[in-house]
């Protein structure tokens, strides 16, 4: 995945990257924009910590990964406050002082290297009220992520090579006699899901999973309780397949991701 979670700025109240903030008229407009526009960004994952973030572009077209959590303006240092316009563009507010909340660039609060002047904001996000708001933000993210996890069509599956018949990406599967298959091999479908699992962000924030992981993701690990292998459903006491996973399998997946 392309790493656009840019390196943090030096300590002090400076914008997250070297470019100057947006013009004053633009910042005043964005100050009045409802925070709902922050959901217009594309969900992706921070390549350093794995947190779910929303990717926008700034007025210059440069990608900006914003943290999905709302930040009270008083806890976000001047120069590190962002708002999102109605077309999804992320704008740095400079030292403007909105009365409600703002967003911050994820790079400034990434668990791998948070800025020292974000300590108060990070402490606030650990409070009970903020955790509830974060849970709501992650739940709002699910429709976008679910769309990415939908059942793939034949062409999408062919974007990966087939491990069974050996054809390259973009080509149709082949039967043992060399004839072209209309349907992809099941192993190719499994390979596609595995590749998509690595590219689609998991519902994570602050380094912790906050939502139940999808079933197809949990099945990428074996079950320590019933010993079902990866990609196979869990089984009950009499060997019957279960529609749900054992708790131990969910815990194993969460611990490994």
Q: What does this molecule look like?
A:
With 257 residues, this protein is α+β, with helices and mostly antiparallel strands. It has three domains: 24-129, no CATH class; 150-199, no CATH class; 212-257, no CATH class. It is 26% helix and 11% strand. Strands 1-2-3 form a three-stranded antiparallel β-sheet. Strands 4-7 form a two-stranded antiparallel ribbon. The longest helix has 21 residues, at 128-148. The radius of gyration is 22 Å and the shape is globular.
Short précis:
With 257 residues, this protein is an alpha+beta fold.
What does the secondary structure layout of this molecule look like, with pairings?
Layout: H1 24-31, E1 42-45, E2 52-57, E3 63-67, E4 71-72, E5 82-84, E6 90-92, E7 101-102, H2 119-125, H3 128-148, H4 154-157, H5 186-199, E8 204-205, E9 208-209, H6 215-218, H7 247-256
Antiparallel strand pairs: 1-2, 2-3, 4-7, 5-6, 8-9
């Amino acid at each position: 995945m392309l790493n656009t979670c840019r390196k943090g700025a030096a300590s002090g109240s400076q914008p997250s990257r070297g470019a100057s903030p947006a013009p004053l008229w633009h910042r005043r407009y964005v100050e009045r924009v409802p925070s709902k526009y922050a959901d217009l960004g594309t969900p992706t994952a921070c390549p350093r910590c794995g947190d779910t973030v929303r990717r926008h572009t700034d007025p210059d077209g440069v990608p900006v990964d914003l943290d999905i959590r709302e930040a009270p303006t008083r806890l976000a240092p001047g120069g590190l406050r962002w708002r999102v316009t109605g077309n999804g563009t992320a704008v740095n507010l400079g030292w403007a002082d909105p009365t409600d909340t703002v967003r911050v660039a994820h790079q400034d609060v990434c668990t791998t290297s948070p800025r020292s002047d974000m300590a108060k904001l990070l402490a606030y996000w650990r409070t009970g009220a903020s955790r509830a708001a974060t849970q709501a933000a992650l739940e709002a993210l699910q429709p976008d992520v679910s769309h990415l996890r939908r059942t793939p069509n034949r062409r999408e599956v062919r974007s990966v090579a087939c491990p069974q018949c050996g054809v390259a990406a973009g080509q149709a599967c082949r039967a043992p006699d060399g004839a072209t298959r209309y349907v992809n091999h099941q192993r190719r479908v499994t390979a596609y899901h595995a590749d998509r699992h690595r590219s689609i962000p998991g519902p994570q924030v602050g380094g912790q999973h906050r939502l139940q992981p999808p079933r197809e993701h949990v099945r990428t690990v074996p079950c320590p309780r019933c010993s079902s292998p990866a990609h196979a459903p869990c089984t009950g006491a009499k060997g019957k397949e279960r529609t749900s996973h054992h708790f131990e399998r969910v815990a194993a997946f969460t611990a490994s991701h």
